[in-house]
């Protein structure tokens, strides 16, 4: 018969229990300020905007709220200017995002090689991004002037008649997209450059030994290695294009986005409804439409990226 001695129960003192609780709660205390600020300035405004979008609220009398349910949303469906703003947001987003990312990819590829004064070029890439959106837009508005703009002067040297960059639909959208491209190309180029430098050099050495040219190395080594970075920039650029506001507002100084709303985006349309016509309820509904659109576009981009990854894994 074997006897087993039982261990005496561990008795923790009050100081030990306090020290253990402190070690357990300390990480939460470190991250608590972020969540407190996010709840105050992020989550609460988001939920309150959804609440306001269900009421008729005027800017002059914000305390008087009349229940409308989904009427603010259904009213948008019958507003032709809403559909114009939605179409303009899509076209300006495509015109500005696609050339911007392609140019950023090319510039990053050049900066990835050994060049003289590489640090200077990298800093110069960020100068447009660091420039105030107001200053940049006002300068480009002068460049795209109809009568005395530098762009039309250069076109005149080539025998092309002056273009009314503000009144035309496509011309005004191209002008606004040019401002966006100028401001954000360098920023995305540096992101691509950081992604390129994270690709192992052994892959390029192996490709060079196999006789691959620089073009083939870019297509078969650089681009596959940059795929997560490309997805990130596409998502961020899509969000930025959906929220585009400063450039179309300051381009001509009108909240209508031109005489015939030809370059009015959803952000500018929301501002017009809320602070031009004082309809805060409808402006809140537009804000939630924009939020839903961003979630939808980001979800589509994520689904396409996941599908591409699964296809490559199955090969």
Automatic annotation (TrEMBL):
Main location: membrane
Membrane spanning stretches: 27-48, 90-111, 123-144, 285-305
The keyword Oxidoreductase is annotated on this UniProt entry: no
Domain ABC transmembrane type-1: 86-299
A Pfam family that the UniProt record links to this protein: BPD_transp_1
Keywords: Cell membrane, Membrane, Transmembrane, Transmembrane helix, Transport
Membrane-related topology note: Multi-pass membrane protein
Highest taxon in the source lineage: Bacteria
UniProt KW Transmembrane helix keyword: yes
Location(s) in or outside the cell: Cell membrane
Family membership: Belongs to the binding-protein-dependent transport system permease family.
The protein's name: Sugar ABC transporter permease
